[in-house]
Amino acid sequence: MFTETVEHTWEAGHSLPHLPGKCSSLHGHTWRASITVAGPSLDQAGILVEFGAFKQRMRDWIDSRLDHSLMLGAGDNLIPLLDLDQPAGEPRSPLAAAFIERSQRLFVFGRDFPDAPWPSVEGVAQLLAHHAHTRLEQATTRRDVYISQVTVRETDHNSATWHNPDPPTAANATASAVRVEATRAFGNLPPDVLRELLTATAPQTAAEIAAQMGVPLSVARYCVDQVYAEVVAEQQAKFDHEIAQILDTPDK
Asked: Is residue 193's pLDDT more than 90?
């Protein structure tokens, strides 16, 4: 198993009026996020995920939505004063008008992100984890890598970490890796040739995967057999469809 972590920093204000103490007042932080990607093995280039592609996508999302923003909860008593649902051109409250005039960026938890009702450090970690999954899928073609945790720090003393509650199992990760490699290497072969080739290479492939990924040989062989069967079935369906199209095409 390998992990890699990308980090980013941004400035934003927030308020937690439902909590006692100083955090109920509007205040700001220099927020720091550490987003960790995990996967069972390195690719042929010797990396888990290319840092630049994933990091740039996460930074772009944070900088365009959260940086120099005010993060509020949908239950904050400031929300009704901001006329968020007021149609364009209609009169607005002085506070709402001031926000518009100065192009104040606003992110409302429980509205812009329904899964977390308040912009607590835990809620921000949950928000970033949600969007990190999408950015990771955009940054790589691998499907055996995943977001394992997101840590958000609002001060040197306060942080919260979101942990993936459902990380891929060794079998799922192995199957995903096998599917990617099998499709890439054998995906265009005729089904009969593909079936013979995969049957011949399955034992060696399973042994290599078991050694590289640290899973039992039985798990690797099961995944290889299952995925190879699926690849052959998909290729057969593809060929059947192409043949049907040829037969249905009238002679010129």
From this structure: no
Quote the domain boundaries for residue 93.
2-163
Final residue before a domain boundary, out of 139, 163, 187: 163
Q: Which tens digit of pLDDT belongs to each residue from 47-84?
A: 888 889 999 999 999 999 999 999 999 999 998 888 77
Q: What is the pLDDT of residues 105-141, one digit of tens each?
A: 999 999 999 999 999 999 999 999 999 988 998 888 8
- Model confidence over 221-249: pLDDT tens digits? 666 666 667 766 776 777 767 667 766 66
DSSP the chain: -EEEEEEEEEEEEE--TTSSSGGGS-EEEEEEEEEEEEESS--TTS-SS-HHHHHHHHHHHHHHHTTTEEEEETT-TTGGGGTTTPPTTS---HHHHHHHHTT-EEEEETTTBTT-SS--HHHHHHHHHHHHHHHHHHH-S-SS-EEEEEEEESSSS-EEEEE-SSPPPHHHHHHHHHHHHHHHHHTTS-HHHHHHHHHHHHHHHHHHHHHHHT--HHHHHHHHHHHHHHHHHHHHHHHHHHHHHHHHSPP-
Tell whether 159 and 174 lie within a shared domain: no
**Which of these three, 163, 196, 231, is where a domain ends?**
163
